[in-house]
């Protein structure tokens, strides 16, 4: 596979990024609560986009890649304690942030 084998000669990496972003924005993705991760939004569109660029892509290989991707993402989410990482990354709820309380006092 060459990176320029995407749709209409685009870079496959750009196609993967776009398709994953669109899947994530749809809010119909799955979530693994213990890992606090949504593997389907990344794994499925990524695997499908890459497989589309391979003329001899094997359906069984595609399924195996999706299963491996799910397992890798869930294991990573569990390893980093996804729920705590998610809270730390997003910060406190908006109502408890200092800037929000200042704004509400002056409103």
Describe it for me?
The structure is a single chain. This protein has one domain (7-106). The protein contains 5 helices and no strands. Helix 1 (12-25) runs antiparallel to helix 2 (40-52). The protein is mainly alpha-helical and 107 residues long. The radius of gyration is 19 Å and the shape is globular.
Q: Keywords for this structure?
A:
107 residues; mainly alpha
Oligomeric state as shown: single chain
Tell me the major beta sheet: none
> Rg from C-alpha positions?
19 Å
The helix/strand order is HHHHH
Unreliable stretches (pLDDT < 50, length at least 5) are 99-104
Total strand count, please? 0
Number of helices: 5
The structural domain count equals: 1
Our measurement of the CA-to-CA distance between the termini, rounded to an integer number of angstroms, reads 57 Å
Give the integer mean of the pLDDT values. Answer: 78
Indicate the structural class. mainly alpha
Described by the principal axes of the CA atoms, the overall outline is globular
Helix content: 55-70%
> How large is the share of residues in beta strands?
under 5%
Spell out the blueprint of helices and strands:
Layout: H1 12-25, H2 40-52, H3 59-79, H4 82-90, H5 98-106
Write a brief caption for the model.
The protein is an all-alpha fold and about 110 residues long.
């Amino acid at each position: 596979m060459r990176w320029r084998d995407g749709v209409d000669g685009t870079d496959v990496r750009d196609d993967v990024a776009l398709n994953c972003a669109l899947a994530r924005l749809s809010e119909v993705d799955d979530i693994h609560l213990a890992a606090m991760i949504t593997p389907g939004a990344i794994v499925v569109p990524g695997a499908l986009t890459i497989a589309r660029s391979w003329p001899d892509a094997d359906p069984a290989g595609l399924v195996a890649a999706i299963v491996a991707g799910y397992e890798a993402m869930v294991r990573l989410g569990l390893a980093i304690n996804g729920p705590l990482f998610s809270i730390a990354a997003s910060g406190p709820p908006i109502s408890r942030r200092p800037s929000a309380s200042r704004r509400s006092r002056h409103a």
